[in-house]
Amino acid sequence: MKGLKKKRRIQIIVLAFAALALSTGLIGYAMRDGINFFRTPSQVTQNPPPPTETFRIGGLVVKGSLQRGQSETVTFRVTDTATEVPVSYTGVLPDLFGEGEGMVGTGRLVDGVFQATEILARHDETYMPKEVVDALKEQGVYVDPDTPPNG
User: Fold this and answer.
1) Which residue among 71, 80, 92, 142 has the highest number of C-beta atoms inside a 10 angstrom radius?
2) Buried b (16+ CB within 10 A) or exposed e, 37-71
3) Which pLDDT tens digit goes with each residue over 116-151?
């Protein structure tokens, strides 16, 4: 009788482990396209991702770089103040998108141009995406709008 209980307990543990491994594998498979890594323009130019990889890029829109074409395609450059990456986007830009403002785009790098499928911009005059703030802090150029100037 004791041998049967021990055997049953081992079977349950093995079955639970197999179920856990299967569920982990299914979750990983389902999320394979849903995970987009964030990169700064400097990271993109130093180590360009393959054209098949979808990722997010963020920084400031370079002043004077925004060009609107005859169609819905818009081109501009995004910078982290150290490096610039050209961006092409077809679609309607957010209302608060503009030159000198923070943005985050999702897309792929094709032939040195970031082909964006989605563009996100700040939602008020002081907001900037966390990833962009962190990247600008790394460059040493971020100024907190809530901090009063030294006088």
Assistant:
1) 80
2) ebbbbbbbbeeeeeeeeebbbbbbbbeeebeeeee
3) 999 988 655 555 667 777 777 776 666 665 555 554
